[in-house]
Specification:
Structural class: mainly alpha
Strand order of the largest sheet: 1-2
CATH class of the largest domain: Mainly Alpha
Helix content: over 70%
Number of strands: 2
Order of helices and strands: HHHHHEHHEHHHHHHHHH
Number of domains: 2
Number of helices: 16
Largest sheet: 2 strands, antiparallel
Length: about 425
């Protein structure tokens, strides 16, 4: 007597992929145009300046790498709350190996220490069947303790170092294309609607752009292609949707889950390298500052898709970067942007006949608009909370359309196909 099993996920049709890509492009373009419009209305030119965008990209990529690591793991059915701990190990690896052996060794060391943390998570969850959340939280606690202990042992006696930080680290080489960035900077200074804003984007990608950031950006395209265009990716995703069905078709579910978790840790470790070698000048204890958790939130916001994940990470990175550019003035202008976006979301929900969600979006939109109109600045304390408030807000708004992998977080035992 055989047991019925659910079929693995079907291959996504090319038309569906094109439609999804078109929607992503429209959302991205529409959001940028609204941002440009708010800049013109408020006069807060730093909203789209090349400096703000460059800081945003630098702040975005560590979060995005953690989120991308979570995507690989959860697409195979393993919840990875331990991304924060794996990123912590990545910062430590970049600090030690980067200082002693150079940039490349620092990046490789960060990735390998992230993989080591992921190996523990894979052993606990895939092999021994321990609850995924319990294992992830344990790894975060262990990584925090290990990083503090090893930092004191490795860096205390080094010149420029200390018990909580490494000496200054070498940085990856930067990309500068003066023939393009110069004219772009001139156009940016004109403050023309959309034209100057697009020039800021061009300047961001042609002036002082870290090669490690470019490499991290390329990993999004690699992930999209591998997971949705290759046989390996289809098999890996089937392990997160219907592992029993995958096993019945001859797929080694354990192998794919372990590979996915190890890749997840490597990506989180790379995020740690970005923090230590690009976002700052060296390793510090506590440097991740919960970015692993924010990356996990960005992955959920992006509906377990690379494109949506990057948009969510950029949103969080932008709210982190903006207070450094014109401080509370830019954040005050951002209130108008949030109000407009909430009204737009309300209109979309109304067209979909979701009246409760539409009313909620309209109500919050009006509140943010009133806040903008009756105040001139935003309290400094609020600017530091902006990334976390943004996290809660976008997750609340996105929760209606989310669909996690069907077997995500479930303990799988070999032979469950019956």
């Amino acid at each position: 007597m055989s047991t019925a099993v659910t079929a693995p996920p079907p291959v996504e049709a090319p038309a569906e992929r094109r439609s999804r890509g078109l929607r992503f492009g429209l959302y991205l373009a529409g959001g940028f145009v609204v941002l440009c419009l708010v800049r013109v209305i408020t006069g807060a030119d730093e909203l789209t300046s090349s400096g703000t965008l460059a800081v945003t990209l630098t702040a975005t990529m560590p979060i995005a790498m953690a989120g991308l690591g979570g995507l690989w793991s959860e697409r195979a059915g393993v919840v990875n709350i331990g991304l924060e701990g794996m990123m912590i190990m990545g910062t430590l690896g970049a600090g030690y190996f980067g200082f002693h052996y150079g940039v490349i060794a620092g990046i490789v060391g960060a990735v390998l220490l992230g993989v080591a943390g992921a190996g523990l998570h894979a052993l606990a969850t895939v092999v021994f069947g321990i609850d995924h959340i319990v294992s992830g939280v344990a790894i975060n606690i262990i990584a925090l303790g290990v990083s503090g202990f090893l930092a004191e042992a490795w860096f205390s006696d080094l010149e420029g170092g200390g018990p909580t930080q490494s000496p200054p680290l070498p940085t990856p080489f930067e990309i500068n294309i003066d023939a393009i960035s110069g004219p772009a900077n001139t156009l940016e200074g004109k403050h023309w609607f959309l034209i100057s804003d697009l020039a800021s984007v061009v300047e961001m990608f042609t002036k002082n752009l870290s090669s490690l950031v470019v490499f991290a950006l390329a990993l999004f395209f690699v992930t999209q292609w591998v997971l949705w265009r290759t046989r390996f990716g289809l098999r890996l995703r089937s392990c997160g949707e219907a592992p029993a069905a995958a096993e019945s078709l001859g797929i080694n579910v354990y192998r794919y889950k372990i590979i996915a978790v190890l890749i997840s840790g490597g990506l989180a470790g790379l995020g740690g390298a970005l923090l230590s070698m690009v976002s700052s000048s060296g390793f510090q204890v506590g440097q991740t500052n919960n970015r692993g958790y924010i990356g996990l939130a960005a992955m959920i916001f992006g509906n377990w898709r690379p494109s949506g994940l990057f948009m969510g990470s950029a949103l969080f990175g932008y709210t982190q970067a903006l207070p450094f550019r014109q401080g509370t003035v830019s954040v005050h202008a951002l209130l108008l942007l949030v109000a407009l976006l909430l009204v737009a979301i309300g209109v979309v929900q109304l067209l979909r006949k979701r009246r409760v969600q539409a009313i909620g979006a309209f109500a919050f939109g009006v509140l943010f608009l009133l806040w903008y109109l009756v105040t001139d600045i935003v309290p400094r304390d609020f600017t530091t909370m902006a990334p976390y408030i943004t996290t809660l807000l976008v997750l609340a708004l996105a929760s209606q359309r989310l669909r996690m992998p069907a077997a995500d977080g479930q303990v799988y035992r070999k032979g469950s196909a019956g």
